[in-house]
Amino acid sequence: MTLQSMTGFARQEGQDGSTSWVWEIRSVNGKGLDLRLRVPSGYEVLEAPAREILGKCFSRGNMQINLQVSENANDLLPKVNEQAVTSLIEAAKELQTVVGGELPGPAELMAMRGVVELIENQPDPEVIEMRNAAILSGLEETAKSLQETREQEGNSLAQILSEQISGIKKKCELIESNEARSPEAIRKQLSQQVESLLENSGNFDTQRLHQEAALLAAKADLQEELDRLKVHLGSAAELLSGEGPVGRKLDFLAQEFNRECNTICSKSNSAEVTSLGLDMKLIIDQFREQLQNME
User: Fold this and answer.
1) Rounded to whole angstroms, how far apart are CA atoms 260 and 225?
2) Does residue 232 have a pLDDT over 90?
3) What angle, rounded to 10 degrees, do the helices at 125-176 and 223-240 form?
4) CA atoms within 13 A on the CB side of 279
5) N- to C-terminal Cα distance for the chain?
6) Which 3 state secondary structure label does DSSP give 13?
7) E strands, 87-197, where?
8) Residue 206 has pLDDT above 70, yes or no
9) What gap in Å lies between CA 245 and CA 223, rounded to an integer?
């Protein structure tokens, strides 16, 4: 199964004998697979197999599934309400004794409301089973159509995510090659820190000097964070080049992107590195937002 987004719509019409139907599926974002199925009265037997079909096709998304069924009028048989006819004839006789005239004939009686009802002709169990199988087959086709729609959007989404991963990687490389991280820059900043300590302190505190120097050197060393970030970026790119549901895995990696980026910003010893880190964080936020639609 290729990459899919979680949004899409599919509609499929079908007919079996005198029964016609329409399946509609609407899919939006969801943490898991939430199937909300609506079928007409008398077709509840289709719910369990319908859920099974959809569960094999999708792993995430909030879905509204609706089935509409209509029967051919030829399958409706007339039924005479004999009690109503008897009551009408008796009433007509009583009225005839008062005003005279003729009693209503069969055609007139059948035209009266409530005398004739159209009831559905119940097919054989084998016919019902074949009809239900045909309707479920229609659902499979609808699910396939929805898959294609979600895959098309998933491919477009994967392209956007790949570009964002490249953008994060570029910022990472710029931070890694920034001059503020060079030994010369660190030594210069250490020298400035030493001069500040000597100017503001009447007594030269060697221990404090070493502490400040160690702290500054540690803050300037971002290599560990950059290395982890590059590993996470590689894993994300690999997931996007594969198949199947990857949204949750990518969301976890996006959290790791954010964690490393925050550490880089907090440890930065230069305004330029901090600015690059903030730019990176913006791309990561956009990446996480796009992920909300990936299965």
Assistant:
1) 6
2) yes
3) 150
4) 15
5) 11
6) strand
7) 116-120
8) no
9) 32
- Work out the average pLDDT over 18-43: 93
What angle (nearest 5°) sits at the alpha carbon of residue 138, between those of residues 74 and 67?
70
Report which of residues 56 and 86 the model is more confident about: 56
Residue 22's pLDDT is 97
Structure tokens at 50: 């319908």
- The H helix count followed by the E strand count for the chain is 9, 6
Interior CA angle at 36 toward 30 and 37, to 5°?
150
Q: Is the pLDDT of residue 113 over 60?
A: yes
Res 110: pLDDT: 78
Dig out the tokens for 273 from the structure. Answer: 């590195």
Q: What is the pLDDT of residues 134-179, one digit of tens each?
A: 999 999 999 999 999 999 999 999 999 999 999 999 999 999 888 7
Q: Is 26 exposed, middle or buried (0-12, 13-18, 19+ CB in 10 A)?
A: middle
Cβ(225)–Cβ(268) under 8 Å?
no
Task: Write down the pLDDT at residue 190.
Answer: 64
Alpha-carbon distance of 241 to 109, in angstroms, equals: 74
pLDDT tens by residue, 240-261: 988 888 999 999 999 999 999 9
Which two three-digit tokens encode residue 145?
């159509």
Q: How far apart are CA 105 and CA 89, in angstroms?
A: 10
CB 230 within 8 A of CB 162: no
- Residue 283: count other Cβ atoms within 10 Å of its Cβ: 20
State the amino acid at position 133 in one-letter form: A
Angle, CA of 160, 162 and 168, to the nearest 5°: 105
| Side-chain-side CA neighbours of residue 84 (13 Å) | 13
Burial classification of residue 64, based on how many CB atoms lie within 10 Å of its CB (0-12 exposed, 13-18 middle, 19 or more buried): middle
Q: What are phi and psi of 268, to 5 degrees?
A: -60, 140
Backbone phi and psi for residue 74, each to the nearest 5 degrees, phi listed first: -65, -20
Integer Cα distance of 170 and 178 in angstroms: 12
